[in-house]
Amino acid sequence: MMLQCSLCGAAVREDSLLWRCGCGAPFKADFGGIPPMNRKRIRSGEQGMWRYGASLPLERPEEKVSFGEGWTPLVREEWNGMKLFLKLDFACPTGSYKDRGMAYLVSRLRDQGIHEVIEDSSGNAGASMAAYCARAGIRCRVFVPSYTSEGKCVQVASYGAELERVPGTREDTTRAAEKAAETAFYASHNWSPWFAHGIKTFAFELWEQLGFTAPDAVLLPAGQGSLVLGCALAFEELLSSGEIETLPKIFALQPKNCAPLEEAFREGKPIPGKVRKTETIAEGISSAEPVRGREVLEAVRKSGGAVLSFSDREIWDGFVKLARRGYFVEPTSAIVAAAAERLSRDGGVGRRDTVAAVLTGSGLKGSGKILSLFASPPED
Amino acid sequence: MMLQCSLCGAAVREDSLLWRCGCGAPFKADFGGIPPMNRKRIRSGEQGMWRYGASLPLERPEEKVSFGEGWTPLVREEWNGMKLFLKLDFACPTGSYKDRGMAYLVSRLRDQGIHEVIEDSSGNAGASMAAYCARAGIRCRVFVPSYTSEGKCVQVASYGAELERVPGTREDTTRAAEKAAETAFYASHNWSPWFAHGIKTFAFELWEQLGFTAPDAVLLPAGQGSLVLGCALAFEELLSSGEIETLPKIFALQPKNCAPLEEAFREGKPIPGKVRKTETIAEGISSAEPVRGREVLEAVRKSGGAVLSFSDREIWDGFVKLARRGYFVEPTSAIVAAAAERLSRDGGVGRRDTVAAVLTGSGLKGSGKILSLFASPPED
């Protein structure tokens, strides 16, 4: 399998084990002659997301690393008169949508015979990587910021991964992981060309669960933007196979306190610039330096959607509204409810449009934090 | 729909709103002429457990209260040479298998036009009841022991349920709820005749996911024993429709520190007696007075299985073994790994038998407790 630089177009072999191009940009996967997904290519006998295995090539598919992840519920709601479908990806095996990406990423690591990896994460991705490496028998070192809560660390450590706590910011953690990667494979989900292909299965599921139609709009939390990239990959495949006629509008959602993609989108820039980052309750999407920012902005613009930003107060209000309807999610995930609230009141989607939103992570990951937010909610 | 006393056989109408028989025993549901499940009755177009909706009668099925729960992954493992299938029911919407029972129970409450309910729970059932009542628009009061951790309470409260903290033991909480039930409907999942019918869908899924065959043995954590009852209901249906030829052996698993069912089973008694209860890490199945103890013992004996008990040390060792394979579960759920360990080493199931085990609750519900167990594990 070949990798292609997303910026300069240079091609390298996957077994070179390079995690980024010499020019500094991330790689994309080149799937060569594999036809795009259509309804005839669905393997209905397979568990979960692997029903779309035809679009997730592996050298030894029978040895894929899987917990049966995916094929999560899609639940219909009315939101101020708007038809909203919630995709319950927090009900994945490790409690977040990241499992889709990790199942494919770690399966490819096993295909390559890799025995030891390094990942950096502030939470969900580290837990997911640790679980899939445990199943694959791959040694896993997860770098986390030293401020990461014990509750999040205990899940990673339970799976048997080695935790490396790094002082400083989330970005300092990434730099420490990159440095360690001089002696072991850096399997960063953000740099990986495979991760977004695993993620794209959520969008195939939307399409199938909606009776083989695309929604008109999709609401996606965006930090590094893997959901946006996965969404674009899936609907591009379905468009090119003739299964759908138009791409859904992608709304990428960021916290106001860390919104590099939103700023670049608003200013018409092709890549995100430096931003001042302050604390936010949407910690899972608080990414000041999105690795694939250019690709994410391109995907949003091509879809006719937008990048929107929300205050912590709006996100918290969204959390409470979701919980009162029976959805207990991470505060990060609640940004989709803030978006549903704004779009349903101010327009932005049509009255008869079908809107889908991904609930990305379980509230059980942040019970302590949620408790303190009830005690002192964010101010306006 | 009629209810029938599980002990004296008295029949009452469901709309009497009685939650137990005048003789003091719990009711069973009388489904009358509804034929048992077979593969032709599966509704493959329905989400999750509702593919078995033909065996979950409702007056207004289109108004069922559902988050698309069920159809959870089944993952194959080898355990000391034993073929073990793990059913990932912790990946239900509220983080536990209870969602199956609550989806059906709360759907029936809505059918009956009930607007306010009382439940008592030490954790998972309360959270699940609160979520489904939120979706159904039913006011919900959940009674919990005052020692219940804040982490568990925050999930229940987030869904908008009213929490009532009761001093004393788990059994004192039940008595407080029963007293409050003089003025509102007591929807206790343990007393409900519907709950186990929702639970039975996990066993239908086992059958379908194993290629329409029954496993040889099933490992089930048992406090009140709803999994045992649901398992028996499902496989009895499949036996009477001719889909399977023998019932799987049911192994009901209890912590040594609270094992009324195990003691009665060992001593050949028809109902559990009083037991001394001490603290256990398997708090989800620490039930000193199982409401349906007689039915549970009957089901286990009829299947040719057994009730087994395990020390906290064995359960904790099971937790670690599961986690190292990528499954992060509540310590309660880890009792199935303790059982797999014992049965695979000492026999008890055949070398070529197919064994299935339910992983009932998410480890994310007990991160704090798991952290302290790593620091000071239970002693032998």
From TrEMBL, chains A, B:
GO terms for biological process: isoleucine biosynthetic process; L-serine catabolic process; L-threonine catabolic process. Its cofactor is pyridoxal 5'-phosphate. InterPro entries: Ser/Thr_Dehydratase, Ser/Thr_deHydtase_PyrdxlP-BS, TrpB-like_PALP, TrpB-like_PALP_sf. SUPFAM superfamilies: Tryptophan synthase beta subunit-like PLP-dependent enzymes. Residues 65-361 form the Tryptophan synthase beta chain-like PALP domain. Keywords: Lyase, Pyridoxal phosphate. The keyword Signal does not apply. One of its GO terms (molecular function) is pyridoxal phosphate binding. It comes from the Bacteria. This is Threonine synthase. It comes from Aminivibrio pyruvatiphilus.
